[in-house]
Design brief:
Layout lengths: L1 E6 L2 E3 L5 E9 L3 E10 L6 E6 L5 E3 L7 E6 L4 E6 L8 E10 L3 E5 L3 E5 L2
Parallel strand pairs: 2-11
Antiparallel strand pairs: 1-3, 3-8, 4-5, 4-9, 5-6, 7-8, 9-10, 9-11
Length: 118
């Protein structure tokens, strides 16, 4: 059984910063790709950023230069540093990871709300 537990969401003013964390736990053999997605009300879930096991990263155009994804392999944790937040960044943010236990499977966290408002 694998769990992804997110933390760090909340309410922030425009221009502010937040740091999200997502820790994976359970019978984990290895973790490949880790990523953050978000879903705003009435919109489809979209990829925000991903990081491979080797540390390569990829970002949605809308967050390039403002967000940074990183991971601590020793802690099975992925982070999302979000700077210069704007109201359009308001969404539920989900952690996602491709994890090998007995089989390779895709896992999701429960989501954490990020609200950017004055």
């Amino acid at each position: 059984q694998v769990q992804l537990v997110e933390s760090g969401g909340g309410l922030v003013q425009p221009g502010g910063s937040l740091r999200l964390s997502c820790a994976a736990s359970g019978s984990i053999s290895s973790i490949y790709r880790m990523a953050w997605y978000r879903q705003a009300p009435g919109k489809q879930r979209e990829l925000v950023a991903l990081i491979t096991s080797g540390g390569s990263t990829n970002y949605a155009n809308s967050v390039k230069g403002r967000f940074a994804i990183s991971r601590d392999n020793a802690k099975n944790t992925v982070y999302l540093q979000m700077n210069s937040l704007q109201p359009e960044d308001t969404a539920v943010y989900y952690c996602n990871a491709l994890i090998n236990t007995v089989v390779l499977s895709n896992y999701w966290g429960q989501g954490t709300q990020v609200t950017v408002s004055s």
